[in-house]
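Handout, section 4.2: multi-component inputs.
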Amino acid sequence: MTTTPRMSQPVESRLPPPLCEEFVYGDWTLKIVKSHIMGSQCEALLGHCTGDMEVEKLCNRCRYERLLTLPSLPDMVFADNLLQIKHKSGGSITFNALEALQCVNDKEDTLQVAHADVWKEARADCEFAQKVVKPYDWTYTTNYRGTLSGGIVAESTDERIDLNKLREREEIKFYEEIFLYEDELDDNGSTRCVVKVRVMPSGLFVVFRHYLRVDRVIVRVNDTRLYSPASVSFILRETSTREAAVSNLQVDSLVYNNPDLVWQHLPLVKEQCDKLVIEKS
Amino acid sequence: MFLQKLCETVCELLLEEGNIQPVSCPVTVCGDIHGQFYDLEELFRTGGQVPDTNYIFMGDFVDRGYYSLETLTRLLSLKAKWPHKITLLRGNHESRQITQVYGFYDECQNKYGNVNAWKYCCKVFDLLTIAAIIDDEVLCVHGDSWSMSPRGAGWLFGARVTHQFTETNNLKLICRAHQLVNEGIKYMFDGKLVTVWSAPNYCYRAGNVASILSFTSTNEKHAKLFDAVPEDKRGKPLHLNVQVTRVFLDNSRDSLLSRYLSKA
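Output:
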């Protein structure tokens, strides 16, 4: 790491502590952590993290730098945030930013911004303008589907989540929206990874959503939906990729700027469904 | 119209300034504000009011926050009244194209009912200074890059070029904004470059602190940190005051949230 002057005033003490919540729903316990974004340098309270320290002992920043090979991270990484759904027998599925980012392509970029050609042509004489340093998927698109742990396994299934049932008005016993990461693509659009959970008397429902908009180029939404009806020990999981070139999208900017609205207007490109089952001990 | 007159007055003042405006210490350097008006007032409480304190604002006054117009009007009024006590630099958001995507254009349309307000402000943007230089030794600029970005357009800051640039131009330091920093301030490249970020709890969710950098001389400087003004002490735009049922959208027909948002 470059030696840079340390802040004389520790920032951690000014920031509010993370919000930690638990909610019990039948045999499932939901755990939520919501906090501020990760710092831009080592956050160890005493001294500095070192290269020989175990991963679990590193501060968030250093842990991310150790475990990820991406040359840079999104502007906002909510490193402490998580959603965990755990069965009383121990099996769980968890969503967090680190593992979502581990699914990002760290070798290739596949998109260019709208004005790339014009920009390069205007700099045709400049040798530095022709070569990209360290390509990677700068849109931070992820195909993460959650992390399974303990006695829970994914099985193939024909069962589908009943979206009509979810449209019915029901009491909401619990609701949270947890940010995982976000970047403004240097004002060329937006990439956002968020997970939301709601619990109703009839079941619990999760949407893990990665939204990408590259202005005047593309809109893409990768969703993983989880649904567990009341009193069962399984979760249906459906992952979908929907995308369209902006030139093919005939919707208002209010719609394509909103992840929760635009997904319905995007053609389905890929889908994967399974059933997460608690193993009988 | 008051805003039109204000913009015309500031345009005349800006015509007198150079593209790189010389400034003397003592002066306080500030980063992005992005329409966070209540937090701008907190910034002035932290750093001192104009004209008691001299300021350089490094651009990005508008977009993303809910009060871009109020923020910009506040800064332009200060410039009109005390032109030598406040320097306003142009950020990448002070442009017609970006403000049409990221909120300022829409805010002008909503608050004034027409686009004239936006047009007058854009004329001011065109004349904003690109950089300021403090006592010939500290360069302040909104802040983009040097080395090809993988996005296909744009450069990235690099250590080598920063060192070369500061040496060639006899600079002690480059101050820039543009990049969100959780701690509010970040030094890089052996202290040759500093990022100052002045929008606390950015986008009302990042939870970061903000900072301003106060120079007594080009050798003596210290960062002043400040937090976002608490929820109960800040206003909320009308369209967010309606109660939003805690149902997240995941269906095609029942766009509850968009229905609530369309209520003025």
